[in-house]
């Protein structure tokens, strides 16, 4: 890279504001989002899902960030205030909280993702950015946005869409981009039955990641136009991006160019929007060399974490002493039972004789004596009574708890109270 190109790449993040869309209901995560917004859902033993987008911003040099919230935001706002208040306003860096305030007409809350940005135009404009990066707050991945910014600036496009290459057979679950050889987006189709493919790669399609970079003036001109349309759903993916494609001003940016490669040799991105996907992504972390490398300090994931004592494993003279194999065990945990291929968040207690296999146990969960779990997600603060068995009888699990078609059981305090 030439010296001038390198200097520009380093400068671009300073001329950018990132907006993290964190206001969605997250209904596909069922009862996990009864009390919290999807971006505030716990992940990976000590993190929240939103920590990945925020950490990507900081690691990419973008230190002016707005988080747009709406539904069930208390848990999320508390996490941001406790864990992300370390940036220095005097150095022009911040994480601003942008809750729905009816700023425009005092009648409408945020009506969609693009309307949420439009209603904060005055705040965002006061930052005087040249570029606006719009991010979903509910995906798990590591990505260098500075690389995408450099591509965007060099291309002359008004908007650049982050895309991930997926097998054509799986592309029908996504919004899919058709591009020419120069990565100009020629078509955008939402969940197509016949997905378009990459030029010269008939088995590969480009799926939108919900990551967009806009030139600021173009963005707010389009948002002002869109807000006047009675037929619009005021959504980036459904309205703003398709219109940019029709105008011929949208470029695609492949994730393979800017994704941070972990120990698995490939950049990692997951939409953890269903119970099955959420469980799967957490359990993936228990592999000896997980595709998402949480231990790479060159691209750290930051979060709020309380001051807790180390995890403890108790034997008390028993031959079957407390142990955990192929598992993540966080601070404050006390394990007197057996844990296998599981993720234990902070302050989980596993009593003697209890067994957890392929379990995701959120903070302050307690497993009583003789409890046996297999393929479960247990929500924060649940206390499972002695002898409870989950994962052996599908019909009984479905009757008492939330069980998915793929056999993952979700347990909450409300479900336990009905036993």
Explain what this protein looks like in three dimensions:
Residues 18-286 form the Nucleotidyl transferase domain. Its EC number is 2.7.7.27. Involved in the biosynthesis of ADP-glucose, a building block required for the elongation reactions to produce glycogen. Catalyzes the reaction between ATP and alpha-D-glucose 1-phosphate (G1P) to produce pyrophosphate and ADP-Glc. With 419 residues, this protein is of the alpha/beta class. Helix content is 24%, strand content 27%. The protein has twelve helices and 27 strands. The strands form five sheets. Strands 1, 4, 5, 6, 8, 9, 10, 11 and 12 form a nine-stranded mixed beta sheet that branches. The relative contact order is 0.12. The mean pLDDT is 92.
Q: In summary, what is this structure?
A:
Belongs to the bacterial/plant glucose-1-phosphate adenylyltransferase family. This protein is of the alpha/beta class and 419 residues long.
What labels describe this entry?
27% strand, alpha/beta, 419 residues, transferase, nucleotide-binding, 24% helix, 12 helices, glycogen metabolism, Glucose-1-phosphate adenylyltransferase, ATP-binding
Task: Please give the count of helices.
Answer: 12
Mean pLDDT rating = 92
DSSP helix fraction: 10-25%
Task: Return residue spans where pLDDT drops below 50 for at least 5 consecutive residues.
Answer: none
Query: Which shape, going by the Cα principal axes?
Result: globular
Note the gap between the termini: 63 Å
Portion in strands: 25-35%
The largest β sheet comes out as: 9 strands, mixed
Count the strands? 27
Structural class: alpha/beta
Family: Belongs to the bacterial/plant glucose-1-phosphate adenylyltransferase family.
Function: Involved in the biosynthesis of ADP-glucose, a building block required for the elongation reactions to produce glycogen. Catalyzes the reaction between ATP and alpha-D-glucose 1-phosphate (G1P) to produce pyrophosphate and ADP-Glc.
EC number: 2.7.7.27
Enzyme class: transferase
């Amino acid at each position: 890279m030439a010296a001038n190109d390198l200097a520009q790449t380093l400068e671009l993040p300073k001329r950018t504001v990132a907006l993290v869309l964190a206001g969605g209901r997250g209904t596909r995560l069922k009862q996990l989002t009864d009390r919290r917004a999807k971006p505030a859902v716990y992940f990976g033993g000590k993190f929240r899902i939103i920590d990945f987008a925020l950490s990507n911003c900081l690691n990419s040099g973008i230190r002016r960030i707005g988080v747009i919230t709406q539904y069930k935001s208390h848990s999320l706002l508390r996490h941001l205030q406790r864990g992300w208040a370390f940036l220095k306003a005097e150095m022009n860096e911040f994480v601003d909280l942008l809750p729905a305030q009816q700023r425009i007409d005092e009648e409408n809350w945020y009506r969609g993702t693009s309307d949420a940005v439009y209603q904060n135009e005055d705040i965002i404009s006061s930052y005087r950015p040249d570029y606006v990066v719009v991010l979903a707050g509910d995906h798990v991945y590591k990505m260098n946005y500075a690389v995408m910014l450099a591509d965007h600036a060099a291309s002359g496009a008004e908007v650049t869409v982050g895309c991930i290459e997926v097998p054509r057979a799986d592309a029908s679950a996504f919004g899919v981009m058709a591009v020419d050889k120069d990565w100009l987006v020629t078509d955008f189709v939402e969940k197509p039955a016949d997905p378009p493919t990459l030029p010269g790669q008939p088995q590969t399609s480009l799926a939108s990641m919900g990551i967009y970079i806009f030139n600021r003036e173009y963005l707010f001109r389009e948002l002002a136009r869109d807000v006047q349309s009675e037929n619009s759903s005021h959504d980036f993916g459904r309205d703003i991006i398709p219109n940019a494609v029709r105008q011929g001003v949208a470029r695609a940016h492949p994730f393979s160019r800017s994704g941070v490669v972990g120990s698995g040799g490939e950049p990692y991105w997951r939409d953890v929007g269903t119970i099955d996907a959420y469980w799967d992504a957490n359990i993936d972390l228990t592999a000896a060399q997980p595709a998402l490398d949480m231990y790479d300090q060159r691209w750290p994931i930051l979060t709020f974490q309380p001051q807790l004592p180390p995890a403890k494993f108790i034997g008390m003279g028993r031959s079957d002493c407390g142990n955990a194999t192929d598992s993540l065990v966080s601070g404050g945990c006390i394990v007197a039972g057996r844990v296998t291929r599981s993720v234990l968040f902070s302050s989980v207690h596993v009593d003697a004789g209890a067994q957890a296999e392929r379990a995701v146990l959120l903070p302050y969960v307690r497993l009583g004596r003789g409890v046996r779990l297999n393929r479960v997600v247990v929500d924060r603060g649940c206390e499972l009574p002695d002898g409870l068995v989950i994962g052996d009888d599908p019909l009984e699990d479905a009757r008492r708890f939330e069980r998915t078609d793929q056999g993952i059981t979700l347990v909450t305090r409300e479900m336990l109270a009905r036993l």
